[in-house]
Amino acid sequence: MAESICRALRDGALEGELAPALTIKDSVASPFALQVFSHVLSQLFSSILAGKSQSRGLVVVSFSRSPSFYLDLLKNKGTDIASSNKQIQILDCYSDPLGWKDQLAGSRNFTALSNEVLVSSTAIVFREVKHMDKLYNSIIELGKGLVGGGKIRFSIAIDSVDEMLRHAPVSSVARFLSNLRSHDQISSIFWLLHSDLHEARVTAVLEYLSSIVASLEPSHQLANGQRGDLENFSLIKHNSKKGKFHVRFKKRNGRVRVMSEEVHIELSGINFTSLPSEGAINQGLVPKVQFSLQLSEKERIDKANVVLPFEHQGNGKPIQIYDGRRSLVDGKHERPFAAVENVQTNENCGSGEIIYYRDSDDEMPDSDEDPDDDLDI
Amino acid sequence: MNQRSSNLLDEALGLDQVIEPWPLRGRVVAIEDQVDTSGSFVLHHLLKRSLSPNSSNVAIFIAFSQPFSHYDRILRKLGCNLVSQRDNSRFFFFDMLKLQCPDGDEGITPEGGLIALYGKIHKTISALPEISWKNVSIIIDDLSLMEVAANGSSDYVLDFLHYCSTLTSEFDCSLITLNHEDIYSNEDRPTFLIQMEYLADILIKAEPLATGLATDVHGQLTVSNKGWNKVSNFHFKVKENVVECFYPGRSRG
């Protein structure tokens, strides 16, 4: 499923259509959006390098991490950064987003340190993050610098829109993203969002702008107000390594496809696995006692095979289910009750017999329902 | 003796092994506390660890909360002499108690306010030999009072904290902050607090026990270490000269 996302970004935009846009959102309870973002970024960049994607270059707009974080990330995935700076450029909105260093250098003896040569050939510092128009122009300029003009496309990764929303109103950010999607040289665009930093309507606006929304949720919801509980702590521990990953695809024809996976965070990176069945999830929440509260498969089969004593007449005839009509073969007295007690007086002297016809096959043999519930006296 | 008893906190932070190069280099550590369980002791403990005599680590302390004499008194009881550390240029104390950003300033002029503070920190670290940069800890006590000094503008404070976190990648130094969780607890969305939680590589929460206050146990610490993908939880008791940390049920009384 994470593979589907990467494929959608790789395939890119169709002629005359908006570029696919992905929102990766999380919250403090399961703060793994950065890991997912990094995974998608490295996958997309590998495709770009291999020539397997529509886009021929990647522009990373980095607010929350230094450019060296992304260069190290790609280096660790085996990419030779030195030779691939023709395919990736980083707009550095991290080092000096508001131009403070410039201002300080002007008024005092403030010496800014020079970046490493490798970083500066791949990263350009941007100092005016409050101006969306300038940001837009810088991104397009960087992208065109990578792929040239004309019809060749490039992709954009934004880490993260939260910082943009701190510096500009949501309408400006929405217009900015929308303009990028409609630019005919943009192949695909994806961004990171921490949903608990914003009002619900802001998150909704960004989701409306996206064709794919990937959200991370905790495996287990914590009970509110119960901090300091030992059980709560074990859930916190569990949630720090695992989470649920839900993806919503909006197709061009209007259909929506929703998929879910489980996500595991390890030191080496992130892993996606299919969601286990509900029982396995609940297994973690069953209190640990010394006797088994669950049925094994064999036990479940055996239980289904047991025929309850009053369900057969002991005469080898098959189990009959009472369907409310007086059409039973035996022709004995029938009443519209689920259970009938009938004492034989002639054939088997001294022995009683319970004749029980279940209402329907749906009723579980040992259900708690009161069979007299439907009496209408 | 001090090292043994605080081992659980040191272990959770990687401070039980060598402390030079400083294990927290390049990391942002956010401490959150509540009225019932003050987290200042964590700050004092980290300051003491960074100024350990076995190292040449440097601490830059940004104080919005208390004057120098307060910290001097407390650290003396923990066995650390801040006056001599200051004289040896291992401890830099920035007294911000009287800082009041001019109204409507919000970072426009670099002369006063938080931009100037950032510049001062940057200059202090740059002046040190390059080999010491990664052994520098910037400690801020505390963020809610910084917000007050900034006339309530949490955006301005967040900008400042962003620039401080760029120092951790520029110099590989560490940033340690203290904030009070219950100040923001009645907001629908405690944005400022959550922003810090996202910014932090290590989050240390000091909270009361679920069962309330007690004499043997003052509270519990939960340390979430993102870099190690590890969460630890243990109880603590703050004594005169030391802080005892122990797993639940193992109080030494």
Automatic annotation (TrEMBL), chain A:
This is Elongator complex protein 5. One of its GO terms (molecular function) is tRNA binding. Keywords: Cytoplasm, Nucleus, tRNA processing. It comes from Gossypium tomentosum (Hawaiian cotton). Pathway: tRNA modification; 5-methoxycarbonylmethyl-2-thiouridine-tRNA biosynthesis. One of its GO terms (cellular component) is elongator holoenzyme complex. Belongs to the ELP5 family. Pfam families: Elong_Iki1. One of its GO terms (biological process) is tRNA wobble uridine modification. It is found in: Cytoplasm; Nucleus. Residues 360-377 have a biased composition (Acidic residues).
UniProtKB/TrEMBL annotation, chain B:
GO terms for biological process: tRNA wobble uridine modification. This is Elongator complex protein 6. Belongs to the ELP6 family. PANTHER family: ELONGATOR COMPLEX PROTEIN 6. It comes from the Eukaryota. GO terms for cellular component: elongator holoenzyme complex. Pfam families: ELP6 (PF09807). Pathway: tRNA modification; 5-methoxycarbonylmethyl-2-thiouridine-tRNA biosynthesis. InterPro entries: ELP6 (IPR018627), P-loop_NTPase (IPR027417).
